[in-house]
């Protein structure tokens, strides 16, 4: 039983050693970094998304995100 655990331990160490070696050869970054245009596009998307979420939060706070129950017309 102890020899089986010892073999499993050495196999696990060997797997980590080979994986570490391959990681040092290849590196962590599999693809190149983003270009300036991609960074700008992503920044614009984040700002636009944040603005829409802020507008939604303000609408919910002011309770204008749903129609009024007083009449049959929707006022926006």
Distance between the termini: 75 Å
Element string (H = helix, E = strand): HH
Q: Main β-sheet, in a few words?
A: none
Class inferred from helices and paired strands: mainly alpha
Number-wise, the strands total: 0
Quickly count the helices.
Answer: 2
Q: How many whole angstroms does the radius of gyration measure? A: 28 Å
Q: Which regions have little confidence, pLDDT < 50, spanning 5+ residues?
A: none
Name the shape in a single word.
elongated
Protein model, in words:
The chain is mostly helical. The chain has one domain (2-27, 34-62). The chain contains two helices and no strands. It has helices spanning 2-26, 36-62. The longest helix is centred in the middle third of the chain and has 27 residues, at 36-62. It is elongated, with a radius of gyration of 28 Å. 0% of the residues are buried.
Summed up, what is this model?
With 76 residues, the chain is mainly α. Helices cover 68% and strands 0% of the residues.
Secondary-structure topology with pairs:
Layout: H1 2-26, H2 36-62
Features:
68% helix; 76 residues
């Amino acid at each position: 039983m102890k020899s089986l655990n010892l073999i499993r331990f050495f196999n696990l160490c060997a797997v980590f050693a080979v994986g570490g070696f391959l990681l040092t050869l290849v590196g962590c970054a599999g693809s190149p970094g983003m270009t300036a245009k991609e960074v700008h596009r992503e920044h614009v998307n984040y700002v636009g998304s944040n603005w829409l979420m802020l507008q939604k939060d303000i609408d919910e706070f002011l309770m204008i995100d749903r129609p009024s129950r007083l009449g049959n017309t929707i006022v926006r």
